[in-house]
Amino acid sequence: MVLKKGINFDLLSQEELGELHTEVHAAFSKVLSGEEKKFTIRDLYHLHKEISNALIRAGGKHIAPIDTLDNIELYEQDEVLEDYSYLEKERKLSKIEYSGEEMGTEIHLKDVLKEFEKFKLKEPFVYIVGGICNHGKTKGDIDILIKKSRPVDDREDIPLKFRIMRQLPKKYWQRLHFLYDDELHGPFTNYVPLYSLICEVNTKQVFEMSEDLGEIMQFSRAEQAAKSRSENKIVPFRFFTQPKPVHGRAREEIYSLETIEETMSRLKQWKDEVDKGIYIEKKFDGVRCQAHKVGKRVLIMTEEGSDVTSRIKTIADELSKQSHDFVVEFEAELWLKGKHQNRADSAGVLHTKDSDQEKFMVANLYDVLWFDGEDIHADQFVDRRKDIEKLKTSAHVKISDARLAKGFPAIKRMSRRFMSLPGSEGTIYKLATFVYELDGKSFNFMKFKKERSITAKVIAVHRVAKAEKTFYYNCAIEGNTYVGKTFNTNIKVSPGEKLEVVFVDLNQYTDPDTKKTWFNWWAPRVISKSSKPVTSIQSAKKIVEETSGQMGVKKVPKVSREELEEVLARDSISGEEKILKLSFQKRFVFQNHYRGKSCHADLRFERNGNLEGYTLMHQVEGEIKEPVMNLKDAAREDKDAKNFKINLKTGELLQDKIEIATKAMQPKVWLGIAPGISLSGMEAGVGKRPEPGATAKFPGVFTKIDSGTYEEGARKAQYFEYFLNGNILKGRYIVRVLSRARIVKEVRVRTPFIWFFWKAKDETPYVLSSRGIRKEYVPEKGRSALPESWEEKIPKELRWWTKGLTGAKALEMIKEIRKKFLFMKKLEENTIGLEEADVEDLFVVKKGNEWCVTHSDGRVIKCFPTKEEADKMHKAIIISKIRRGTLSETKFALKRKWWKGQFVIRGMPVEHFEVRFDSEKYPWFKLNKNPLVVESGISGIKQSGRKEEVMFEGIIGPGKEGNPNKKIPAHIDILDSGSVNVIEDSENFMHVKFSGKKLKGNWIFKRSDPASNIWNVSKAELPKTKSMREFGSPLSEEEIRDVYFLSENFVGVSEIGRFLDRPNSTVYDWLKKLNLSNV
To answer: What is the pLDDT, as a whole number, of residue 847?
Structure first.
């Protein structure tokens, strides 16, 4: 269908209208880039309106791309350039050179500006909806619909809601109810449009700027953060993501100095630094911001990217008087009459124009990332601290006090001091080696919050929509005094039962009608059920004083949401209902990502405030013939089924397993790139980096294939389980590392650790599978690793995750559940192929017999090995002799091998680690993680032969042995070296003791299963040879080692006896002496 004027769109089908909708958006993108000549912006705006309305009238769905015709405000923001001419006149700016080839005759700016007509785009944005519109009157709420998605931070729309509220008499304020339109459908029933967003032509004025600052203004805040992250660089006046710290507690624990010690002891990088010293600071209770200052120019942004410079002018003025240039982090707090005010009041100042309390705001500076022309974010905190201390303090600018404490007693003592300071919300801990990370998360600093607790009675129970395992509660204290609503929790109780709830702040209010006191807590987490008496009103009032809580007059909120649900049901506002439900669910998105003739899929999952994700190599090589340059090209290729190994209409995988690569954590903005966006690349030779997602020659073009919600299953070092609920991706999917032996022929292997994605044939969750039980897998505390539909099947008395059970007690319940399900035939009999069998399965495979036995419930499972395969495995595992005796000392080297190709997406290098021994008789291993950083959960691939010198360090050229790349070099760095003692080395097991400068102690290399060359690597302490000799046994030392090795690999007593030709009683006695698991 060709896009043109004069079409009667009501005569077209939904499919034709959908194609034209894609066309009009593609044409709009071309107009902005200068490629489209047939249409003006005005033409496309009106065509788009007609097509969208016709599509909805035809029963279709209008889904709007986030950066095109439906989001006028974004273009308005991007096109407004700020005036940088007031930078010091003596600062010379580089001359701006011409950046492209000549394409025709010379064009003058004044002639171009004449061509831009004055036009105005106007879109309704705020409506009155609900019963008052449908019936002309109401006794309920006044429903206000805002045509945008619900913001992540509710504070974002405070100014908008404030302005709307102030248009009405005060008596109506409490009855205002704000709703959001997640899918931009607009209202579905009677409505009155109140306010519109307007885009109009700006003043035609040239604003001068420096070279660096000019480029910054081309990007929105999200794009600025992505650029800062991909370049790993701090640039003044360019927004960057401020990372979140590690919690100093486990889930559903109350913060305490003991949980801080436990957390630091559990994390290797912290445990090793405690005695050397940890920096401790007060945790400020305000609004987190970043300030950029060059010359007299100051820009202040919140951590969400809002420009608040004009809202806290006093702080901005004092920062501008500093003699240094800098980019700093700070916390903005409100202090009145020497007393700290709560976070909500501080936020209110930042969101209010010309607030009379602005002059009482204080900036507490605690880190500096750029200083006097140098990007120092990659320096250690101990060095950055020296620079921030060069700044001057004043009435409204303070420098955070940071103290070094060595050892846990000093850390606890210093923590108590900082927690006792006025306005302290707790403490922040920083490693001296802390390098500032720009990807949103850091394990180099940790927070401890002063939490209070209340014992509250449940007065209303709410089940989260489409997540029946999750609840939240309305609670009350003494005298049924309302105290607030909790965060979501998996702990289930009934009305009248009591809960222990921890929180940060407590506010106190008086209801204007009843004159009764009520409370509202901030960040309330449910910890456990409680049998203690409910908290008294007097105790609650004392907590308000201790936490600087608000006090005021406010109506008690409605206890339940039934009235809201009635509004939604009555008015059929499905968009709002969906928002309310989805706000509690985790989302995923599946997108095609084109760059020229190349395409991969991006699969991203919402998790912990960011996105974890994978790159799927699903393109059939050579099938895309022409470069994809825009959304029209992408739509064409999406429709061609020959291009991909996944059916994009049904979600069916046309290949058993799809090779993938893991992505670094990314911000949530990538979740919303749909259904189409084109991120432009740059022409080669210009010297500018491309935008994230693009390459130097081609734009990155994204199309959304699917999206929906998901539930997490099992999560292990080499294995991730997802239960997807999308339009085409539905059911149980696995992400796992597999060995080369299992890799399909189509995959070209260049890295030693290959991840794959596939649809599971069996929907049984891993935690209830025989394999999971054999591996003794138990999810972390409070999580079942089951989808909602499976949790409902489990008897309440066996729901271990609601009882706070872990370890052996939880495993016993899991085993009982599996037995019950097998008996009730809720689980199908498992059948597995040889590639899915574990070591413990194949140990008991009999020659020529196709059956094996599980160790979880004694059931028989079909394994399908051939006679030849069974013979081979039997020989490899049982019959082959283990190399025995303590072997002589040799040398080792721990290396990092890495390479980096063209700049795409994030520009991160490909890397792995290698442990090499200075002897050809020992294997060497490729590792996916650095054993100097983590001591468990490491995957390795065993290699043989010494193909390079153990101590070689440097560069391997393209195409050379040891470098799988034909065009780029591989780099090798030695991280540690020293001596190593190989205590045990066999087909499936290796025990070594490292004595390096950093890598020390006993380490175990254990094959994950005999059909695989993937090994599990971890630090461990094993029984020493000397202790085995002390028993004076009739067994030889070689036989003792055989007993130890075979029992550790789940071989039974009778099998070991047959192997050694010894009585079962002798084997049993030795197993007991060695304290081994199968006794």
So the answer is: 35
CB contact set of 858 (below 8 Å; sequence gap of 6+): none
In the chain, the amino acid numbered 961 is E
pLDDT greater than 80 at residue 151: no
Most confident of 239-243, 935-939, 950-954: 239-243
Q: Is 44 helix (H, G, I), strand (E, B) or coil?
A: helix
Closest by CA to 910, choosing from 919, 902, 922, is 902
DSSP-derived 3-state class of residue 317 = helix
Q: How many CB atoms neighbour CB 404 within 10 A?
A: 15
Distance CA 587, CA 710 (A): 6
pLDDT at 910: 76
Q: How far apart are CA 543 and CA 330, in angstroms?
A: 27
Distances (CA, A) of 303 to 230, 244, 297, 749, 785: 18, 11, 19, 41, 33
Single-letter amino acid, residue 868? E
Q: What is the DSSP letter of 878?
A: I
Angstrom CA distances, 399 to 332, 447, 490, stand at 12, 19, 41
**Is the distance from CB of 532 to CB of 108 less than 8 angstroms?**
no
Look up residue 216 and give its amino acid: I
Tokens coding 161: 């809601």
- Report which DSSP code applies to 258: H
- Greatest mean pLDDT among 210-219, 241-250, 923-932: 923-932
> What are 899's two structure tokens?
């390479």
Q: Range with the lowest mean pLDDT among 76-90, 519-533, 711-725, 1047-1061?
A: 76-90
Phi then psi for residue 29, to 5 deg, are -60, -40
Type of residue numbered 1014: I
Q: What is the per-residue pLDDT across 902-916, written as a single tens digit (0 to 9) for each? A: 444 344 467 889 999
Do 835 and 758 meet the contact criterion of CB atoms below 8 Å apart? no
CA angle 668, 674, 676 (to 5 degrees): 135
Helical spans, DSSP H, in 560-610 = 562-571, 574-582
Do you know the residue count of the chain? 1079
Number of CB atoms found within 10 A of residue 219's CB:
18
Q: Are 930 and 913 in contact (CB under 8 A)?
A: yes
Cis peptide leading into residue 675 (ω within 30°): yes
735 and 613 Cβ atoms separated by less than 8 Å: no
Mean pLDDT of 478-490: 88
Eight-state DSSP code of residue 877: I
Tell me the residue type at 211. Answer: E
Q: Count the neighbouring beta carbons within 10 Å of the beta carbon of residue 94.
A: 8
Cβ-proximal residues to 545 (8 Å cutoff; 6+ apart), any chain: none
* Cα 22 to Cα 14: distance, rounded to the nearest angstrom: 12
Phi, psi of 27 (to 5 degrees): -65, -40
Spacing of C-alpha 885 from chain mean position: 47
β-pairing verdict for 598-607 and 192-200: unpaired
Are 606 and 722 in contact by the 8 Å Cβ rule? The answer is no
- The pTM for the full model equals 0.38
Residue with tokens 């391997």: 956
Q: How many CB atoms lie within 10 A of CB 523?
A: 12
Amino acid identity of residue 327, one-letter, is V
Identify whether the C-beta of residue 969 lies closer than 8 Å to the C-beta of residue 959: no
